[in-house]
Predict the structure.
Amino acid sequence: METKLHLIGNAHLDPVWLWRWQEGYAEIKATFRSALDRLNEYPDFVFTCACAAYYKWVEENAPEMFAEMKQRIAEGRWVITGGWWIQPDCNLPSGESFARHSLYGQRYFMGKFGVMARVGYNVDSFGHHGMMPQLLKQGGMNAYVFMRPGAHEKTLPHDLFWWESEDGSRVMTFRLADSYGNWASNGMEDKLSSHRAMAVASGHAFMSFYGVGNHGGGPTIQNLELIHKLQERPDMDGIELSSPNRYFSEMKQMNPDIPVIKDEMQMHAIGCYSAHSESKAANRKVEHQMLTAEKMSSLANLMRGLPYPMEALNRAWENVMFNHFHDIMGGCSIKEAFDDVRDFYGEAFSIGAKAINAALQKISWSINTMKPGIKSLNKEKDWQLWEQDDLGSPLVVFNPLSWDVEASIVINKKLAGVTDAAGSPLLIQTVRASRTNTSDKWDTFIKGRIPAFGYQVFWGYRDKAFDIVQPTNAVRAEGGTLENSQLSIEIDPTTGYIRRVTDKRSGGREVLAGDGAVPIVLDETHSDTWGHGLTNYREELGQFGNAELKVLENGPLRATIRVTSYYGASVLRQDISLLHDSTDVHVKVRLDWREQHKMLKLAFPVHVEQPRAVFEIPYGFIERPTNGNEVPGQMWVNVSGNKPDATENMEPATFGLSLINDAKYGYDVQGNELRMTIVRSPIYADHFGERDEQVEFMDQGVQEFAYVLSPHSGTWQDSGVVRKAYELHNPLLQVWETYHEGDLPQISEGISITSDHVIAVAFKPAEDGNGWILRCQEAYGREVETELCLSALNRKWRSTFGRCEIKTFFIPCMLHESIEEVNFIEMKPMEE
């Protein structure tokens, strides 16, 4: 078999790292100009470059150079790879974010150049999650090139292999042997000789990347002159200027005997899972907000004709995708860069919030909320509410998720009574508000059920109370104990740790094998910002303690104990809550962190034997060894195993604990102990540099987040953890209304999916404007058939989902046209 060495001339460009984006912007233009110069100077030179964002910058700021690039792309000498908006971190963005990188990146390339990337290209990202093959295939790419983890971090049977994800998707994948470029010509000859020897040893062609990278630059004149000299040597036959497209095309034609690997490509830079808490929390929040903005805007367009804000939402997505760049999302850029990150997220948040507000109010204004006897609006009864004659004020509550949600609703007004749309009185609880306005510092807490993609009107009464039978075994708090009909929780009054969680559903089973929610402080002086060369963080320095406990709420719907504990100059406040009849423990955290070169983890030993740890990854999940290594995860992680006291001679029963959070991405599980990484405090962009008195440390000050503990019987698939995670991240939305006529009912459902395993993640107009897009995922790894119904489109259909399969449905506007399955780019999948 031919053993060519394909030389890939490229320019790895970090738009942000040790510099801000403005400098990256300038460097991209200069690098592209240099690449065009090389193309003019050397007729055999081929240039490869990814990242749609860079091309758009050049289009906007240097149109004459952009025209020259278009010509070279048409010739095939400038090769577009990596059909994503940027080279993102490949662990931390959500599954739907990866879909958007394909949607906006590939459609940009197709619209401007008439081509799409066929090779995925993330040569500098710090690890690659196990669902990447499906995401690449759905994004129109059938091959992938990466570099990290290197051979010293992960042993692979071969550098060229078929990579397979849980759903069965495969892409041909190549791991670079060492570097995506070179920073000087000396050493390049040795590198090429080494790579050629690897090709000969493997029996098939290899790729070798060259060109100055990171701060741009690309292939130099010296690079090309050296290559031409080497090509004349008989011992260097078979080296040629090429591209990843050509390499993979030839490899697939040759069909070498290479292994199939079903695994994630990890671990590198483990500190990046938790560096810079603010940007990570903002990313998690804005990813969900953007999807809510799209869903609600789509429903408002279909139900009321409100124009869909396509241009604004696309601009917001571009901001979010840019912040996914691996040196941003990984938290390893300079401090000044994160000021820009905050601005980009801020613009996206603002756009999303405006879209959501417009959509909700357009719908709510059309609901019939008129009451008998109302002749006109006035505010004689209350300065805030429009209530008249004890008729109540309408509060419209919306659910952006694709299943009915029964959840907490905090109404920003102290009320005497609340009913649902049918007029049935609801149990209420007065809770502390965030305001302190004379005596007006109380809100009203209720629980309500809201239909999927729908809403319900609740009626709030300022003075009118209702006789409601108080629940038996109502939730209560006393001292350090929280208890309802499902769980009992004991908190140690001295340490503040959760001493025990007793699950009453399973005969009083203990959920924890020891103290839980233990705040452990670890030493990370030996770590740079990235965590280079490390596999775990387990050097314990101490624990928060000297706790103070205070009962904040005492039922009947919610009971809360505030636990405040201390370490050094840092203060940790955890508000531990239990809802009536709930099987979950909700915790709101406020941390004032003042430590340097230290890490904080919360530890939860789960009372199981033979533990198994499963983590959410983008659009999927993965089981990992319980060896204490630091690993990335998304919204949830689960530790399950055999019940320690299972009856002999019987199949051991399974029990477990899910941990859900709304802001964190780093975890470790050692044995049966699950730890969530809360905060790190390395130096900004410290790659083992000189640590003097002028360095600045990350994450100093106050941050807030929430987590949920959800014990369950059976496997993690039986626990409902995926839906619970989405519910934590997508709280119900509300609009205070007044009395008015309308043609919409007081309760409405927008979608119905018969299978609990299938989640509709995205609903939006098709990019081509002739229909609608509904994207769903099978979330639990079980093949299932389901019926889907979208009432706003008057459409109903059935579909079968494979394990972890993502399906994108194109729903034409014309009812006589059939619903089709398309890929992330909203096109029919292309042939291999």
The mean pLDDT is 96. DSSP finds 13 helices and 45 strands in the chain. The first strand starts at residue 5 and ends at 10. The CA atoms of residues 381 and 532 lie 64 Å apart.
